[in-house]
Amino acid sequence: MSVGSVCPLIDDLLFIKGTPTVLGEVPQAGEKRIYVVEFWASWCWPCRESIPHLSELGEKYKNRGVTVVGVTREKDYDKVKQFVAEMGDKMSYNVAIDVNLAAREALYVPSNAPGIPKAFVLVNNVVFWHGHPVDDDIEAEIIKAIETN
């Protein structure tokens, strides 16, 4: 998935934490939706290191229309739920399991990512940026996404 690609409808995420979100949903006229979608896993140490940074970005920009969603393909609901509970406020954003791997197939696989963690900034369902979630560029790209008409 390259910059400028449209994100298809992804409505089968199983949310463990936060507000259930439908990725790829067409916003109403005049509405702007910005999502930071991160692919992660509880066993992935670099993913764990990105959690505080994503929480910070989510808190910093939530009043500017930015929603952070962490997506894992792990199948053990109870294990993921326990991990998220143990993280507590350190993981202050929405977390979901990609039950049918729809998000993975729509975003992650087409991006040719070498591994996780991998983040995408979506603006009104269009890929605005993708890269590593602790990359210095992610915050600059979120700001650009907010300021873009």
From TrEMBL:
Name of the protein in its database record: 9364_t:CDS:1
Pfam families noted in UniProt: AhpC-TSA
Domain of life according to the entry: Eukaryota
Domain Thioredoxin: 1-148
GO molecular function: antioxidant activity; oxidoreductase activity
